[in-house]
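Hi there, hope your week has been kind to you so far. For a while now I've been wondering how a particular protein folds. I'm sending you its amino acid sequence along with the backbone structure tokens. Could you read through the record and tell me how the tokens relate to the sequence? Take your time with it, there's no hurry, and the full record follows here.
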Amino acid sequence: MCIGLLLMDKRSPAPNSQSKNVWYLAITQALPVMLGYLPIGFAYGVLAQKADLSIFNTLLMSVAVFAGSAQLIAVELFALGMAPISIVLTTFVVNLRHLLMSASLFPHVQRWEKTEKAVFAFELTDETFALHSLRATQQKFTKNETFIINIFTHSTWILGTGLGVLLGGQIIETELFALDYALPAMFIALLVMQLKTKPQVIVAVLAGFLSLGLYLLGLNRWYVIIAAVIGASIGVWIERWMKN
């Protein structure tokens, strides 16, 4: 987060009012993700404590890893006593979708410095990808605003984790709080924000049913990636067909 602040473009300092406006625009765009990250980060903190993960390692993972689903899966595997290599390989497979997300956003950051690209890639999550993709379609992909959004979202994730660590001992039955629903609920909200045209709705519904079908067939680690690739391919075909 501090690195993100240092990398913000200072070559042409903006007036104070304009600088405040950038921060305001950033936080208003990041707010839906922040509201989702608080309960999910909280859930991660609680589950990490239930799995006997140390407070230091719990917080360190949110600072250095910053990957919601991967962290939740890692904690679950840790609680089951899985070998470290199994945890690493599982989370690696789960996060392979980031290859698709990075490739999608690369045209918008290809002129950035290598350090800036590295920091941006580190802060990229499913939720921030959805947000940045929406901003890119609206021609709002400015560097400073992008880093500020990432700073807000990452800070909120760490805050949620800290609250989960502090209050985790007070929660006996985590199922009663439906903490596991926070993640899909946020994804649904972010998806709805991006559905502007009929082809997008068709692809979203199709990919959703395809993902569910593949999951029921037993593809527990690959169903999201396969559904995303097939859905995106169908979306391209639909757009070309409509243009012709």
User: Anything to note?
Assistant: The CA atoms of residues 203 and 231 lie 6 Å apart. The chain has two domains: 2-194, 196-244.
